Amino acid sequence: MHFPFESYTENILKLFDILKVSPYKLYSFEMKIDINLSNFREYYFQAVSNSSWAHEGYLVALHIADDPELIDEMHRLNNAFGIGVIRLDAEHFMQSEILFSAKEKESLDWDTINRLVDSNPDFKKFLDDLMEDFKIRKIKSKYDEVCLEEEQMYQYAQKNGILS
Q: Which of 81, 126, 152, 162 could anchor a disulfide with 157, C-beta 3.0 to 4.6 Å?
């Protein structure tokens, strides 16, 4: 989630409300360990299915085979479905690479969001927290931590088994 609270003044945020323009963006990330030509289509369409609700969706992997045929398929499917692809560098997070950018959707898929709220208590809590934070225009809820320092990200990856 991108919260614009610090990007804009209170007056601009009010203007967004009046004009019914949303400066907020929801992102979805489908995480995998390895992507190669034999598993790419399966993983990509999981990302399409699981990310359709968001403004932008990404397929993210630690290891992506350096195969020209795979890169061509990534390009083709990115053009067709708009899901981006990120090569995650687990040792140097700031050097992670967006291979293909997601295509931003103007609106959210409300039917899928509704289905996710009904079937996933964590997603429901996430949306409840978002609504509360929107209302007060401050981030008071607890979300997944985003570490901005590379060393913090490295320690997080080690602690959570992302790195061996």
A: 162
Q: What residues make up the domain containing 122?
A: 28-159
β-pair type (84-87, 56-64): parallel
User: Is 11 among the domain residues?
Assistant: no
Rounded to 10 deg, the angle between the 40-51 and 68-81 helix axes is 20
Backbone angles phi, psi at 28, to 5 degrees: -130, 135
pTM: 0.78
CA distance 157 to 139: 24
Distance CA 30, CA 50 (A): 7
- Give CA–CA dist 10/26, Å, rounded: 21
HSE, CB side, 13 Å, CA atoms: give it for residue 57: 23
Q: Would you say residue 164 lies in a domain?
A: no
> Model confidence over 23-73: pLDDT tens digits?
778 899 999 999 999 999 999 999 998 888 899 999 999 999 999 999 999
